[in-house]
Amino acid sequence: MNLRPDVLLAIFCMALATYAARAGGYAVLRLWRPPRFVEAMLTHMPGCIFVSFILPSVAAGGPWHVLAAGVAVVMMVFTRMLTASLLAGVGALWFMLG
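^ thats the sequence. predicted structure below, dont judge the formating
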């Protein structure tokens, strides 16, 4: 296998951009305190991103996948434990399809 310099440069630039995006956010928030609305929005952002990744495949999976996602949501509401809700959703789908 050959290591091409252009591929290594692309990987290095992508790693640098990723680091700059993550570290830049912390640097900006150290210097500038965002308004309360922005803070509230940032606290809810990970959940929204997770849903946007999961929802298309759940909808494409059919009714069993939607039902298993519902089981995961109900488990999350009652336990507030992400791992338990994910295991419940996967277990429900495994049970329904198995």
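The radius of gyration is 20 Å.
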